[in-house]
Amino acid sequence: MTIARVIVDVPSRDTDRAFDYTIPERLQGWVEIGSRVAVPFGPRKLQGIVIGLAEDADVELAKLKPIEEVLDALPPLSPELVELGEWMSRRWLCPLTVSLQAMLPAALKGRSEKYVFPAAGAQWSDEETARSGGLLLALRKGKPLKLAMLLQQYPEQGAALKRWLRQGRLEERQRVEDKSSGKTVYTVFPADAETLLKAVEEIPARASKQREVVRYLAENNDPIAVARLAAEASTTSATIRSLEERGLLEIRSVTEERDPYADRDFTASNPMVLTPKQATALAPIVDALNERSSEAFLLHGVTGSGKTEVYLQAIQRCLELGREAIVLVPEIALTAQLVERFKSRFGALVAVLHSRLSNGERYDEWRKIREGRAQVAVGARSAIFAPFSSIGLIVIDEEHETSYKQEESPRYHAREVAIERARLHGAAVVLGSATPALETYEAAAHTRGGSQSGLGKIGYIGLPERVANRPLPGVQIVDMREELKLGNRAMFSRSLAAAIKDRLEKQEQIVLLLNRRGYATFVMCRSCGYTAACPHCEISLTYHRGSSNLRCHYCGYSEAEPKTCPSCESPHIRFFGTGTQKVEEALAEAFPGIRVIRMDVDTTTEKGSHERWLTEFRERRADVLLGTQMVAKGLDFPYVTLVGVLAADSALRLPDFRAPERTFQLLTQVAGRAGRHELPGEVIIQTYDPEHESITSVQGHDYQGFVERALLLRKQLGYPPYGRLIGVTFSHESAAMLLSIGGQFASGLRERAMELGIRKEFDSTGASALEVLGPVSSPIARLKDRYRFQCMVKYRGDVDASLLVSRVLGEIGEAAKRGGVQISVDVDPQMML
DNA sequence: AGCACGCCGACT
DNA sequence: GTCGGCGTGCTC
């Protein structure tokens, strides 16, 4: 008897283990590791993933319930992805179902739905009917209705529904449903009649049902739905399945496909001739591919050095070897321009996965991969889970981007998942960036010395020059304090204003970066000092001019623009700080006739708007592309010769040890947008802190220098990559409980560390150390009506802090649950806020 | 996480 | 007496 070990879709600590089920006869052969199944669980019916099959497991069979259904013709996950999920849940301390669920396309994240319908012979009095406000009339039409929908439509009838269900006058039924709208039919594609007839002889006489099916198919040699064929031959799908194993037929899920790129022509492109530098960069990657060794490389190339062509040719080689490739790109860089580059080189072999596709479209692309019709997957973070079976190469472009870390559970980092997945496949990893993350750089620089970062060995490949020897743009730093002294109170310095005017005359283009959206960043009353804050979060509200309201950028709350102070009714209420909307206005004022495209979260929510703006800019229907960091990444426009940064230090003062690194990276990236083609580029950076290293290093394009100094500082303070962090956040609607639960966690962890003889101090001896900071109120003390406290665990890489933390959480979990305190754990947090 | 079961106050 | 409040414990 085979037992299936199933992870049910209940994301909690208590249920984070496999539950055993029997496999009923009709599903024999369909249940595999990675199958998605519907199972009974207590009184409910749930979706689950099979993570193991055990022959006659050591359990009381009588206690086991059978699997109810297998939900896909092909298991959506492979044993390798299940293993990867197990690794993830250990690495980032999340329930296994959460990491497995993260690998499925949204269309397959079916939830179970409850339906209710009247029991046979159930009666209701006229009075009850009248009081139900139409509910009973709807129900008595006979069709089962969704319980969730009824509760939403008749909110007052909840109690009545419950009563009737208990009394048995209503019945409920639960089904696990897919979200995908496209209809899927599992279809049998038979081999040709001749092959089938020949094969009949070889099928053992005992397998009479199989023979019958084959004879049927020999006569009716057309594709037929699995269910119909089973009915036709009065047998079960298990029979058909074994025929598939004999190679006499193929079962495929057939759907109407939506190809989001169907209406577009891609002109074929051939490999370009590599520069000698590019060729040198490519060589070690190709060596690794040929040897099938799971090596990782940092491809450190300045902006415009032609990294993409290196990726393309590495992928080419990978495909020639009959293996598949994954390319990760930051979401906002995943533009038509980039997709086109891959499509034109590899054609229909490319599947594209990004968040702007509908669930259905995404599911189609995902199936192309699963069914082997695509060999290259290009996508954002979650494309790292592309269901390939033989991966040869994983490329992560702009590997330093923060978007590779998922900010909700599972809080994984795609870079690390890539390295682990590559290890399982014997695949090469290429991490490309002009400004590598300090963690990556350190791992590459000290690969021989033994790195603390946890990334393992990384080979270093440098690409220090732009193609065709185009110079890097000149960078000018403007001290805005000097401007103020000279009486210039405008938001554009004299040199930036002059440069803008010059480009307008020459009909060249300009990119302007300001990392704050909205119009004004805070609202204050000059009489009483009142500032407008979100009632749900401890965050000041941002004024948006178009809609004349104040908005919270954390929870989306908005309120009307105040005319007088809500606190003292003084009319002296003023808007402070500059956002992109205000810059747009100032540009129009200072340069009449200027054509500006503003690109930020507010103007790009609509589907396709992002690409539309970029196309408009590329076609030079605008002079200025003004925006938040989304204008800094990966864009390549030949006529951009000026890049202006309005407030370079805006992110520098955040209470986050990575703030200087982020600032340097952002400035370098945006500077790289200028002068990428024939026309030379110029960059003007405005700041109130012109001496700051994050800014001065951009001027000299001095990554090396910046990084060496930053790493030294990190080492002194025990921050990553030399020490590591785990952030634990406790939240509750009231603050009262948080300090005590947080305190219990901190002291519990300190005790455990002491027992194991782990030192508290980080010192030069290099001995294991672990330190617990907090609990303290989080930098954002309240978010969406919940107060937040946090602890930060700082430790050296040789301490298994994850294990310690999960043990302590196990101890205090009960108390936290009773008190209603939510705990979220972030291993290797990327944002300190 | 849900959902049932169980033991307590406020209604017909 | 019953309805429904939410604390507790279990789900193969």
UniProtKB/TrEMBL annotation:
Q: Which GO terms describe its biological process?
A: DNA recombination; DNA replication initiation; DNA replication, synthesis of primer; double-strand break repair
Q: What class of enzyme is it?
A: isomerase
Gene Ontology molecular function, alphabetical:
3'-5' DNA helicase activity; ATP binding; ATP hydrolysis activity; DNA binding; zinc ion binding
Which keywords describe this protein according to UniProt? ATP-binding, DNA replication, DNA-binding, Helicase, Hydrolase, Isomerase, Metal-binding, Nucleotide-binding, Primosome, Zinc
What cofactors does the UniProt entry give for this protein? Answer: Zn(2+)
- Looking at the record, the residues that make up the Helicase ATP-binding domain are 288-444
Which is a Pfam family this sequence falls into? Answer: Zn_ribbon_PriA
**Which residues bind Zn(2+) 1 per the record?**
525, 528, 565, 568
The superkingdom listed in its UniProt entry is Bacteria
| Domain (Helicase C-terminal): residue spans on this chain | 560-714
E.C. code:
5.6.2.4
| Reactions that this protein is recorded to catalyse | ATP + H2O = ADP + phosphate + H(+); Couples ATP hydrolysis with the unwinding of duplex DNA by translocating in the 3'-5' direction
The note on cofactor binding and number reads: Binds 2 zinc ions per subunit.
GO CC annotation: primosome complex
* InterPro entries, per the entry: DEAD/DEAH_box_helicase_dom, Helicase_ATP-bd, Helicase_C-like, P-loop_NTPase, PriA, PriA_3primeBD, PriA_3primeBD_sf, PriA_C
Q: Which residues bind Zn(2+) 2?
A: 534, 537, 552, 555
Similarity section: Belongs to the helicase family. PriA subfamily.
Q: Which HAMAP family match?
A: PriA (MF_00983)
Which NCBIfam families did the record assign?
A: priA (TIGR00595), PRK05580.1-3 (NF004066)
Function (record text): Initiates the restart of stalled replication forks, which reloads the replicative helicase on sites other than the origin of replication. Recognizes and binds to abandoned replication forks and remodels them to uncover a helicase loading site. Promotes assembly of the primosome at these replication forks.
What interactions and quaternary structure are annotated? Component of the replication restart primosome.
Q: Write down what this protein is called.
A: Replication restart protein PriA
Organism name: Cohnella endophytica
UniProt gene name: priA
